[in-house]
Amino acid sequence: MPLTVELDVLDRYLAIMRARFGQRLVVTTAIDEGAREALVPSMFLQPLVENSIRHGNATITGAGRVEVRASRDGDSLVLEVEDDGPGRPAGDEPRTGFGLTATAERLALLYGDAQHFDAGQGATGGFLVRAVFPFRTGKAVA
Predict the structure, then answer these.
(1) Torsion of CA 24, 30, 15, 118, to 10 degrees
(2) Which of 54, 57, 87, 106 is most buried, by the most CB atoms less than 10 A from its CB?
(3) Contact yes or no for 102/87 (Cβ under 8 A)
(4) DSSP-H helix ranges across 22-122
């Protein structure tokens, strides 16, 4: 589905989370205009944002931040979800959770070696998920 549709789905989910967390949840998006029509796997962003809220935002006192970013880099789409929570627990191995593992496997099935998925410590100490896959428009992918 086009990223614009995926972002609409994400907005509906975030409305529920904002009702639950109120001012404790701050979600921002930085979506390059050129990336909006890119095709993305359906329900791709929502589980990543849910993980950020569940494992990042919900575990801290005060307001937590989640940022969703999308940009085009040549022939690739770059999607990132980053939170300002505690980050990966010390000694935790990458992609050990079911959700992140399933997401990485899904991208590998859809795009093979043309994709890259990384999940780990963000630059500001929180958790960062970064997915890079071919930029395509037109007919939707699964």
Answers:
(1) -80
(2) 57
(3) no
(4) 45-51, 98-111
Question: Beta 64-73 vs 76-83: how paired, if at all?
Answer: antiparallel
Taking Cα atoms as reference points, which of 117, 59, 105 lies closest to residue 84?
59
- Taking residues 37-55, report their average pLDDT: 93
What letter would DSSP give residue 55? I
In angstroms, the CA 65 to CA 70 distance is 17
> CB-based burial of residue 133 (10 Å sphere; 0-12 exposed, 13-18 middle, 19+ buried)?
buried
Q: What is the pLDDT of residue 27?
A: 94
pTM, 2 dp: 0.88
Q: How far apart are CA 70 and CA 130, in angstroms?
A: 10
Q: What is the pLDDT of residue 95?
A: 46
Q: Is the C-alpha dihedral spanning 121, 123, 128, 129 positive or negative? A: negative
Q: Which residues, 6+ apart, have CB-to-CB distance to 87 below 8 Å?
A: 121, 122, 125, 126, 127
